[in-house]
């Protein structure tokens, strides 16, 4: 894998877009009864969702479908990413009942595919890896037929922590790249681009060595100042790291204290990225303005099967 991206088109400074969002970013608000049912379940089990904490634009659609992405480890993150709406500061103690409660919520929602993420817990010696593993085990014990997708932090590059999570055998191992290497200092000041690629590569190598069926996955936000070709170079790095699934969506500023949107990427560009990604060998690429890591996660995983992959390749 390359250690440095080759910038094909040097971007020129741009002013954040003014005026209303384009039509393709308009959001549908669905049936509130199912949304309220999910809300009551989450609150009753003292859980958090990234849907709420990250102000996801798809929350209405997903909650109407009785789908939620659970966020473990609390609701305070120890890092200071420039794009994220999750609270920052000193994290509290881990809730020992949280893994069981996540398992119960998955069972109550009767999910076929569960997605779990977490805040960064750099205050913990293992970055929260043991808590992660216990959550996976509890979800699987209560829901043996449910696929488990985990969107994990980088554990500061600690391979032992990553192995603790892999030992619990998730079905999908996701770690988001978030943006291109050139923008890391501004977008992810506490993270490292190469470390992200190394994590994905380690997961893929272990998967292949042990003959697992686990899929690896990563995603980015567009509209933070990257060029089209820089995203293509990032795709090549992800494929070199053994990444199977990629997601690309439009960055939306959650509030005034976070990075502004540099531009709104057109649906046509998202389609081009998807086609390029399939040509590069990804098993599935979800690329659209409203795409998020966990948006249509079950369909993404199903799309990574051999038949779907072949059809995409022919279409591109």
Structure description:
By secondary structure, the protein is of the alpha/beta class. It has a domain at 29-170. The protein has twelve helices and ten strands. The strands form two sheets. The chain has an eight-stranded mixed β-sheet, sandwiched between helices. A two-stranded parallel sheet has the order 3-4. α6 (159-167) links the parallel β6 (147-151) and β7.
Which class do the helix and strand fractions yield?
alpha/beta
The percent range for helix content is 25-40%
What is the count of DSSP helices, taking H or I runs of 4+ residues? 12
Oligomer: single chain
The strand order across the widest sheet is: 1-2-5-6-7-8-9-10
Beta-strand content: 5-15%
Average pLDDT figure: 81
Terminal CA distance reads 24 Å
Q: Any idea what the radius of gyration is? A: 19 Å
Record field, number of beta strands? 10
Q: Can you write the helix and strand succession as a string? A: HEHHEEEHEHEHEHHEHEHEHH
Detail the poorly predicted runs: 1-13, 306-316
Q: Biggest sheet, in brief?
A: 8 strands, mixed
What coarse outline follows from CA principal-axis ratios? globular
Keywords, separated by commas or semicolons:
single chain; 316 residues; alpha/beta; eight-stranded mixed sheet; two-stranded parallel ribbon; 10 strands; globular; disordered N terminus
Quick overview:
With 316 residues, the chain is of the alpha/beta class.
């Amino acid at each position: 894998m390359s250690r440095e991206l080759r910038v094909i088109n040097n971007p020129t400074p741009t002013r954040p877009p003014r005026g209303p969002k384009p039509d393709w970013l308009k959001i549908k608000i669905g049936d509130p009864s199912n949304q309220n049912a999910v809300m009551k379940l989450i609150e009753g089990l003292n859980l958090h969702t990234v849907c709420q904490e990250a102000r996801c634009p798809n929350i209405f659609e997903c909650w109407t479908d009785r789908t939620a992405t659970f966020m473990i480890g609390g609701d305070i993150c120890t890092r200071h990413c420039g794009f994220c709406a999750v609270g920052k500061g000193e994290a509290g103690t881990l809730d020992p009942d949280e893994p069981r409660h996540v398992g119960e919520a998955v069972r109550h929602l009767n999910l076929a595919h569960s997605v779990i993420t977490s805040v960064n817990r750099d205050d913990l010696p293992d970055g929260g890896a043991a808590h992660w593993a216990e959550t996976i085990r509890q979800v699987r014990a209560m829901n043996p037929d449910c696929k488990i997708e985990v969107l994990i932090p980088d554990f500061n590059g600690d391979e032992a922590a990553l192995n603790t999570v892999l030992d619990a055998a998730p079905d999908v191992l996701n770690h988001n790249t978030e943006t291109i290497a050139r923008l890391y200092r501004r977008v992810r000041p506490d993270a490292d681009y190469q470390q992200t690629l190394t994590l994905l590569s380690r997961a893929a190598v272990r998967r292949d060595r042990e003959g697992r069926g686990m899929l690896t996955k990563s995603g980015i936000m567009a509209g933070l100042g990257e060029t089209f070709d820089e995203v293509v170079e990032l795709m090549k790095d992800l494929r070199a790291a053994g990444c199977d699934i990629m997601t690309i969506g439009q960055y939306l500023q959650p509030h005034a204290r976070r990075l502004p949107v540099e531009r709104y990427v057109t649906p046509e560009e998202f389609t081009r990225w998807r086609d390029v990604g399939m040509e590069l060998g990804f098993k599935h690429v979800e690329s659209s303005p409203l795409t998020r890591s966990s948006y249509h996660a079950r369909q993404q995983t199903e799309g990574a099967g051999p038949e779907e992959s072949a059809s995409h390749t022919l279409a591109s």
